[in-house]
């Protein structure tokens, strides 16, 4: 069955069975890592957030850029926390 033009088959538009990863899931997990790192003052979680930023960039460039900006701000915040001690 075709909708648009001559000979365009849209049978592939049927919903696929199975679950897909929501594209925003890496963003939320990365932000959770950043918040946890700031709250616990543990830089290891910033490394996990850095890996999350890479996954965010691979899934969506704009969300990856936002996550990277947030991670940079958190890293700057971490340096001010370390300097206060």
Please provide a written account of the structure.
With 85 residues, the chain is an all-alpha fold. It has a domain of 40 residues. Helix content is 66%, strand content 0%. It has three helices and no strands. Helix 1 packs parallel to helix 3. The protein is elongated and about 55 Å long. The N and C termini lie far apart (69 Å).
Helix and strand pattern: HHH
Please tell me what the overall shape is. elongated
Could you tell me how far the N terminus lies from the C terminus, measured between alpha carbons in angstroms?
69 Å
Amount of helix:
55-70%
Q: What is the rounded Rg?
A: 20 Å
**What is the mean predicted local confidence, pLDDT?**
80
Number of strands: 0
Number of helices: 3
| Major β-sheet profile | none
Described by its quaternary structure, the protein is: single chain
Strand content: under 5%
Structural class: mainly alpha
Low-confidence stretches: none
Secondary structure topology:
Layout: H1 25-40, H2 44-59, H3 61-84
Helix pairs in contact: 1-2, 1-3, 2-3
Structure at a glance:
The chain is mainly α and 85 residues long. The chain has helices at 25-40, 44-59, 61-84.
Notable features of this structure?
mainly alpha; 85 residues; 0% strand
